[in-house]
Amino acid sequence: MRESRLTVDLAGLQLANPTVLASGILGYSAETVENIVNGGAGAAVTKSIGLKAREGYANPTVVQANCGLINAMGLPNPGIKEYVKEFKRIKAAVSNVPLIFSIYGYSAEEYATIAGEATAAGADALELNVSCPHVKDTGSEIGQCPETLAEVVKKVKASIIRPIFVKLSPNVTCIADVAEAAVEAGADGLTIMNTVRAMAIDVDTAMPILSNKVGGLSGPAVKPVALRCVYETFERVKVPIMGCGGVTDWRDAVEFLLAGASAVQVGTAVSLKGSNVFRSVALGIDKYLKRKNFGKVEDIVGLSHRR
Amino acid sequence: MAYHIADNRLRTTQILNVKVESPTVKTFSFRDGQCAKAQPGQFLMLWIPGVDEIPLSILGVEEGGLVSVAVKNVGQATKALHEAKEGDVIGVRGPFGNSFSMIKGSVLIVAGGTGTAPLVFLANRLLPSMTREVFVLGAKTRDELLFMNQLEQSFNRSQVQLVTSTEDGSCGITGLCTEPVEQILAKETFNIIYTCGPEKMLRKIFELAEEHRTNLEASLERLMRCAIGLCGSCTIGKYRVCADGPVFTSKQLREVKSEFGNSKRNLTGRKIPLD
């Protein structure tokens, strides 16, 4: 890869720029991931994949809220056996950018099994979804308990050699405590953060709108929360952080870098700006670095901690 | 900058009118200012509180914010909707997606089943500007030929022709609606073909259009969840039906030939053959 101001080394992954497709956004098929990569993404995270197929919840699965989106999709996915076929197609279509395979499970053993199949299919890294706010017994139940989380990370770490990112939940008392537990257990990087547990009620019918009643809030509404989570965690861990939560333009992305993120994930903004959002964010970061006389992205990672 | 996701929040409204169109199809009308600004081909998400939220093509809009949709009773959600009465509360978001290009001149419209709805909307809008129109309306039986009287009335002009076909021969030409289309295209050329209906039918019409070097726009249907281009449930090739469609041009359909008319994704995201 050609060196530039924007290139980033993320736990050994070489990214042409620090923008990454967040998990859950598109990501089923080779064609859609290719489209995102053509839009300028430096890396992409797949949908979260489990051991068995899941249909997810009935609609409404998405509520359009003030400055964001509440979703309770319910982790729909075709299961690891079926998905690896699609993943190999994705890999062939976008061989030039790192592909991070997101997985979820109901036990440490299950995470390890899926991790093994994902890496065998060519995953450049894994992202452990231990923070889905709307599916029982996986997700938050794991990500909110440092001991359970450590057990999952250790099991996965022992079974694969690729880098492991752990995607943390903001729905905890102290995210840095959980982050430390993940890193001590062997996490090579962190994604901060997953969605914020949220809901919406229709006043006319007095009914919760989501079929699952509760979902996760994403988009600009959660950016300040995500930024604080990254800032607090950066002071406690040494591994790279991918900032995630409401990044819509370059200024959002730079805020995350200054707070301590080495890269940023973009999800909800794809709806607003299409796949070119990645290119526009990356170009904006580049202009900022140039204007401020910084040579590389890493020069500003965590800069706000020194001010 | 306004955050457009928030501009299109779910809002509730009352069903104002229910009309039986066929043994399996009912039309529902309600007031919604935003959807009343929709263009032909766009769709909305309709929430049946406590049951489901489903995508529906917009059948028509009127001044004063009246919007109508045609619903075929095919599953749990549409059954619940068919049981709904005037005054019942529903939720609406939209309009979503793109719309048919409003090409003037000579137009061939091919409608199958409930795919007729967006094309009735289109035909009404095109009426003042077209020089020639043939509207092919197909269904399994005479009972299921939708909006025939309405089309006949508005087409009370010499340059507009309504051709019907039924699979059981109870009205018009016997067989699939692709048969009259084949005959029509052999005799006459059109500026454009607009079509909506079962995808296997759309594929056939697309191939006939390619053979006759005529531009086509087809409105597709897929499983939909978010309706705003994020979740990936409705993808066909690199396109998202909710955000890049639902109307696709011949050029785009050529790019997704392996899936168009052949496969879709189920609730788990797995690719499965089309019925």
Summarize the structure.
The complex is a heterodimer of chains A (307) and B (275). Chain A has 307 residues and is α/β, with parallel strands linked by helices.
- CATH top level assignment of the largest domain in chain B: Alpha Beta
Output the number of helix runs of chain B: 6
Topology-level CATH name of the largest domain in chain B: Rossmann fold
The largest sheet of chain B, given as strand count, sense and whether it forms a barrel, is: 7 strands, mixed
- CATH topology of chain A, which one? TIM Barrel
How many structural domains can be distinguished in the coordinates of chain A?
1
* N- to C-terminal distance of chain B: 43 Å
CA radius of gyration of chain B is 18 Å
Approximate shape of chain A: globular
The CATH superfamily of chain A turns out to be Aldolase class I
Number of β-strand runs of chain A: 16
H/E order of the elements of chain B? Answer: EEEEEHEEHEHEEHEHEEEEHEE
Which parts of chain B are unreliable, with pLDDT below 50 for 5 consecutive residues or more? none
Strand order of the largest sheet of chain B: 10-9-8-7-11-12-15
Main CATH class of chain A? Alpha Beta
What oligomeric arrangement do these chains adopt?
heterodimer
- Measured between the Cα atoms of the first and last residue of chain A, the distance is 33 Å
Please state roughly what percent of the residues of chain B sit in beta strands, choosing from under 5%, 5-15%, 15-25%, 25-35%, 35-45% or over 45%: 35-45%
Helix content of chain A: 25-40%
What is the domain total for the residues of chain B?
2
The string of secondary-structure elements of chain A, in order, is EEEHEEEHEHEHHEHEEEEEHEHEHH
